[in-house]
Specification:
With about 450 residues, the chain is of the alpha/beta class. It has helices at about 30-40, 60-70, 85-90, 115-120, 170-180, 190-195, 215-230, 255-265, 285-300, 320-350, 370-390, 410-415, 425-435, and strands spanning about 5-10, 25, 30, 50-55, 75-80, 100-105, 130-135, 140, 150, 160, 165, 205, 245-250, 270-275, 305, 355, 395-400, 445. The strands form four sheets. Strands 1, 4, 5, 6, 7, 10, 11 and 12 form an eight-stranded mixed beta sheet that branches. Strands 14-13-15-16-17-18 form a six-stranded parallel beta sheet, sandwiched between helices. Strand 2 (about 25) and strand 3 form a beta hairpin. The radius of gyration is 26 Å and the shape is elongated. It binds cytidine-5'-monophosphate. The site of cytidine-5'-monophosphate has 18 residues, from strand 1 and helix 3.
């Protein structure tokens, strides 16, 4: 039996208060609907995708489908006045008599393939499925006059998400029964209809806290941050894909840079490293230019450029020596610009990847290393901007944000710290290579000792 995904994208997004419906807002370099679509496109058990869109946005959705180059059929169906109508239009567009349908809000871009797996598994034994998570808030039932009527026990409450999944004949019947039912007009989900007409039980599959709906402006800001956290779970790309790729690593002589070179070579990459040790100071534009051009001449291409070179000088600003400050900024910030600018032509040719490094201090400057933390904030901003500028050339630009890592630079500045509180440069190297091989762009990828999510 085929599995159809129906992505509901015909809402107007009035509640965000923005002109663009929320499914078309760009977050982390892509529209919300693209993030959603890609998860269903990549899922091996989804056979066909139906996007339900408002007639004014059909052309935009067509473009999105084209850009995403789907290997499975994706069709567009016109939406209706309410979510319920849109859902019915999607369901009615399926010609099979027997099928499974997974109906998902376009505005839930964090849908995981695990949730889809669990839903498809549950559809083997149930005809209707909702995805929900336990409510951490106590839910109160209120009267119209703002007094509490009842506070039911919290353990009975779950927060409904999507997809809601059905054996096609069941959800079709539910919608057909609702056509002449005025009470069903305001229903905001599909499971309610199945329950209303007592067609079958609705089984609950556990959702997750990432699978949020983007509704209000605050959700857009939170979603941006969540994409950063979620990028811990990179696409499943084996490091074997790095074989025969040409990698240039600036800052290769020690720490994270050295580990990247070792690991990439182990997997068959052709790696060329540069650092002050072999005479390349990245704050010097011509040295960067010559290094890259030399690699390209000898290797015939450059697939990835990684810059781990950085300087950290501790001290209160007023007490520090001006030439040290200038040097720090020249390496940490200008160096990254030199590398980016000179890498562009090579990466455009290879549709390659550029990778920078930031510090956990980028979100909030830290006393005693204000120039370091502000230069690291600049790197994130630079990568985000470049990822947008270069998306049309298929160049990906990302930033790794490792927590305190056991490198020589750290030992020099902070002395000896307990080993088990520090991240190993090997782990950072592995995530770095996974990142350059992934399809992400404009992302800050956090690397921590223990995965938080
Ligand atoms: O409005 P609500 O938050 O319930 O919307 C959930 C999903 O349903 C959104 O992805 C929205 O685009 C979609 N929708 C639709 N047609 C409508 C209203 C909402 O496809 N008329």
């Amino acid at each position: 039996m085929k599995n159809y995904a129906i992505i509901l994208a015909s809402g107007s997004g009035e509640r965000t208060g923005l002109n663009t419906p929320k499914q078309f807002l760009k977050i982390a370099g892509k529209t919300v609907i693209e993030h959603t679509l890609q998860t269903f496109q990549k899922h091996p058990e989804i056979d066909e995708i139906i996007i339900v869109a408002n007639k004014d946005y059909i052309e935009q959705v067509e473009n999105i489908i084209k850009i995403n180059n789907s290997k499975k059929p994706v069709k567009i169906v016109q939406g209706g006045a309410t979510r319920k109508d849109s859902s019915f239009n999607g369901i009615n567009s399926i010609k099979d008599t027997q099928a499974n349908v997974l109906i998902h809000d376009a505005v839930r871009p964090f849908i995981s393939s695990k949730i889809i797996d669990d839903c498809i598994e549950a559809l083997k034994t149930h005809k209707a499925i909702d995805v929900a998570i336990p409510s951490s808030d106590t839910i109160v039932i209120a009267n119209d006059d703002n007094f509490i009527k009842q506070i039911p026990e919290r353990k009975f409450f779950r927060r409904g998400q999507t997809p809601q999944c059905f054996y096609l004949p069941v959800i079709k019947k539910a919608h057909e029964l609702s056509l002449n039912d005025d009470e069903a007009k305001n229903v905001t989900d599909d499971c309610s209809l199945v329950l209303k007409y007592g067609l079958c039980e609705v089984y609950i599959v556990e959702g997750d806290h990432f699978n949020r709906k983007i509704t209000y402006p605050l959700d857009v800001a939170i979603a941006d941050k969540l994409f950063q956290l979620k990028s811990l779970k990179l696409d499943d790309v084996g490091l074997e894909c790095i074989k025969d790729k040409v990698l240039v690593v600036f800052g290769h002589s020690r720490g994270i840079g050295r580990e990247i070179c070792t690991l990439a070579e182990e997997y068959g990459a052709r790696v060329r490293g540069f650092s002050r040790k072999n005479g390349v100071d990245i704050s010097d534009f011509n040295l960067v230019k010559d290094s890259l051009s030399d690699v390209n001449k000898k290797e015939g291409k450059i697939d990835c450029v990684i810059n781990t070179a950085g300087v950290l000088n501790i001290g209160n600003l007023e007490a520090r020596n001006m030439s040290d400050i200038q040097k720090e900024i020249a390496v940490n910030y200008l160096g990254a610009i030199n590398i980016a600018k000179e890498s562009f032509n090579y990466l455009k040719e290879s549709k390659g990847s550029l990778l920078f490094y930031t510090s956990s201090s980028y979100t909030r400057g830290r006393a005693k290393y204000c120039t370091y933390s502000s230069s690291k904030a600049a790197i994130v901003n630079l990568a985000q901007a470049l990822s947008e500028e270069w998306a049309k050339f298929d160049i990906r630009v990302n930033v790794i944000n490792p927590e305190r890592t056991a490198t020589q630079m750290r030992f020099q500045n902070f002395g000896k710290e307990p080993e088990d509180t520090l991240l190993s440069p090997k782990k950072v190297a592995k995530v770095s290579l996974e990142t350059i091989l992934s399809s992400y762009t404009g992302q800050v990828i956090n690397v921590t000792r223990e995965d938080l999510f």
